[in-house]
Amino acid sequence: WDEQTYLPAGGAEHRAAQLEMLAKLTHERRTDPRIGELLDTAADGEWSADPAAPEAVNVREWRRSYDRATKLPASLVAELARLESQAQHQWMEARRRSDFSIFRPFLAKMIELKRQEADAVGYKAARYDALLDQYEPGATSASLTELFAKLRADLVPLVQAIAEAPKKPDDSVLQRHYPVDRQQHFAEMAAAAVGFDFTKGRLDVAAHPFCSSVGPADCRLTTRYNPRDFIEAFFGVMHETGHGLYEQGLDRDFFGTPMGEAVSLGVHESQSRLWENTVGRSLAFWEFFLPLARGVFPQALGDVGVEEFHQAVNTVKPSLIRVEADESTYNLHVLVRFELEQALLAGDLAVDDVPTAWNQKYRDYLGLTPPDDAQGCLQDIHWSCGLVGYFPTYTIGNMLAAQFTNKADEELGGLSALVRRGDFRPLLDWLRTKIHRHGMRYYSADLVRRIDGGEPDHRPLVAELRAKYAPIYGLYYAGMDVSI
Ligand code: ZN
Description:
3-stranded mixed sheet, 3 strands, 61% helix, binds zinc ion
């Protein structure tokens, strides 16, 4: 958090050396053979009879992380750490100059080391699974490939229909003047209204928005402000607030153990997307918040009606950049990366061919061709940091958010009525009970089974997007139902 907010540039080198030392010490302790002995002893404890008991969950997860850490040769861990710091630097330079050839040898080396990592850890069906497992325990590339293919088959025509729709919302209202201090005030008010506890958290400015937990009652959010743009900071804060509500909802009594930690990146992202998009971009939300927003921004919003504003914040514009993507195109950006990184690991795609393959997929899925690699395959930091197998968790999160919302809507007797009167407590309590307080007890697919009785499913997300965009863009779908 400090590195991203207040650390002076000159302090970065010393901080990097400190982090390297910490990483080395952590790895030494994490792989101490005494941990293995203690885990062997613990395996026979009486609690092992109930796999959902907190002790059993903790032992299971400590075993999982110990096994992974001890399977990795220390030389590979050190080599990866060195490469990550070099590759990030080279990636920045490559992106600045929009020159893939600068990053190419580092990406090639990264893929080679990630293959070694996967082989050392072991896997049943696909190498990719050994990497995916760190971010989304229990998920496999085979199940995601099948699920994502169905999602893609529904999303590509939706995005195309929106692009060709004669009816277009006017979002110019969002580019009026929004003074930064007022944006901050309004974003904090909204975060607090949906349940973020500012006595146990704060909001600061950083170049890249994130949520970071420093301790059990210390959750830090960041955002960035642009006085000519309402969307970026507000929905950025709603997104990070969703992450923060999950962190604040974890059971404090289990802090420092897996029972007190978020279960996966996909589930984490489901919470951020739920508050940012499903709640934050709903008509009901703006029926409650627009009158308050008019009070804060009388000049920009004095003459704006709620329907007009709701349509403006739901404008779809297929773009080249993932982090700027709207709700309907976002998952297509993720699918491009998921397919390419699987092909790279499997050896079906040569690193030299990444820019061509990237651009082809953007044409096929989004109908756009990146004019250069900076706006194409060099836009994301992930691969340079060794985060291979991470991207699919964004889309898992979007799908889970829709599934969870449907169930909450059913069990709470209609979310729109609650949201419309600014009563967010029932939804937050529902999420706390069903998801947050379980920590790492249930992996994402198990959580879905327990909550809605089914499997992870793309259909609720597609239905939600169609229901939202049909009236805005004048589209029609048979059997369409509108939730919030
Ligand atoms: Zn997020």
